[in-house]
Input
Amino acid sequence: MDILLISEYILLAAMAFYSIATIRIATRKTISMGIVGLLGLSAAVATILILVENIYGIAFCSDIALALVILGPIGTIAFSKVIRGW
Output
């Protein structure tokens, strides 16, 4: 087991912990904290999917991660515009 694989497992565990923290942020009472939490969660899940692709060689994980990275901020901006009232 080389040092790169060990560091990928450590990063995977850290991203899992970060995902739990962002879920906690997303369940706050205000809408803005929910938006921030979901944007952080989408970034964490995208990073986890890229790590899963690198460790296990599952090819479709990068496509899903790319879609999350592109659609996460776009959805956040669109939702904040709707809440603001255009």
